[in-house]
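I can't quite decide. Please look over this sequence plus structure tokens:

:::
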Amino acid sequence: MTDPFQNVDAAGEEFIAAFADSMDARQSDPKMETIVSNYLAKLQFPEGSLTVEVGAGAGAVTRRIAARAKPERVLGFEPSSGFVKEAKTRALTHENASFKVADGTALPLDDNSVQNLILHTVLTHAEKPDLLLKEARRVLKPDGCLVVCDADFSKASLGSSASDPLDVCARAFVNEFVTDPHIVAKLRSLMTETGFVVVEFDVQSRTIADNDQMLPWVEETAKRMLARGDIGQELFDGLVSEYKRRATAGTLYGYQVFATAIATPA
């Protein structure tokens, strides 16, 4: 089944709102705040520079970039007009941030015009990630910097026991909502092949033990199962309820891995 993040607007307003909130919740997690702040600390924002985020979603990371780069300009490109609408609303207090609808493989920017370009949890949803990287190479200045931060979805889990039904939902999420769950393993070679020199590669694990940050993995996949007739309403309600029960009890165990690669044009 096609990854809905390849065409978010087609997935509908409910999907957009749910994942805009989910992205905000994920980014507010202390571990994710550390991952983003660590790579932002390694970037330079000289006077008059432009920093771009490609695949900005509803702007959860763009707002962090804007706070770090202030007063320099930050531009978030996102192919979903629904996400861009959400992003603009959520970034009203960030005067140096703006958002535009654009395909990351054809950015409306001149060659060698961008100081920093960030792809945060984007390549896992791309059918041709090399095209996004080639476009990043085109627009970056010779002394510019590329940051790619993405999840290794092949390692993600919600399992607390053998045949855990929540882990079945997690595996279904990876199968149906992710284009390439193994992109992290390929990342350094992809970046090298598209004209970059990787100067740093780091991997961090993240656990979800007492909150709703992986609830969409259960809820959205169970919605699809329900719509297909694979399960009934009782099981749908039960899966969502079980996730919430574990989160409240502190027995939830969600596991994710995030990798960050920093590169410069070759």
